[in-house]
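Q: Is it fine to ask for two folds in a single conversation?
A: Yes, each is treated on its own. Send the first.
Q: Here.
A: Result:
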Amino acid sequence: MYTKSILVYSPSYLNFISLFILIIPKEINNRNTKIFSRDEQRRLTDYLIGNIDIKNSGILLSLYTGIRIGELCAIQWKNIDVKTKSISIEKTLQRIYLKSDTGKGKLK
C-alpha cells in the first residue's frame, strides 16, 4: 500500500523539491584525530590486560571491535554468545545533559 503511494506521488514531490535551491555545505574534516601506532596499541593492550577491571575490559572491547561508547554501555549478558564468540549490538544509550532548578547541569 505505501509503496504504491510512494510511486504515485514521488514524481510530483521531486518536482516540488526542485523548485528550491539547495546549497549543500562541503564536508570539512577539521578534527585532529590521532590514531594509535601499532606500538602504542600494543602497550595500551598490555597495560589494560595487566590491570583488568570492568572499565579496562570496555576499553579493550572498544579498541578491538570499534564499538561505540553508547553501544558498549547498552550491552547486556543476553547480547553475548560465548559459544559463537559473538556480541550482538541491539541498542545504544545516550548521555543527556539536564539543567536543574539550581542552574547546575547533570548527566542522566
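Q: Second one now.
A: Result:
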Amino acid sequence: MSGIKGKRYIDEDGNEVLTGGLKAAKTNKLKYGKDFYARIGAKGGRNGHTGGFAANPALARVVGALGGKKSRRTGVKNGEGKNSLKDIEEIERVLEEESGRDK
C-alpha cells in the first residue's frame, strides 16, 4: 500500500495494528471491495479531460504569470502586488484572441 500514510506494527499480543490511512484503506476495502481504489481512480480518469486551463494554454500562461508575480509580493508598495488595470486588460486581450480562433 505505497503512498498511504499510517503505521503498521505488531502489538504485544501478536496482532497486526494499522493506524491512519492504512486503517482507513483496510476498512474501505472490506466495505466496498478489493477494487475500491481502482474504481474511484477510473472515475476520476474518465472525468479528467473536461477543459480548465488545458483548453486555453494562452490564458493559463498569462494568469499563471500574474499569480506568480503577486505571490512574491515584491511590488506591493508600488502597486504591482494588486490587480491593476494593465493585468485585467491583458487577460481580456488573451480571451478575445482565443475566442476569435474558435470561430
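Q: Anything structural to flag on that second result?
A: Two points. The first helix runs from residue 20 to 32. The chain has two domains: 8-46, 52-102.
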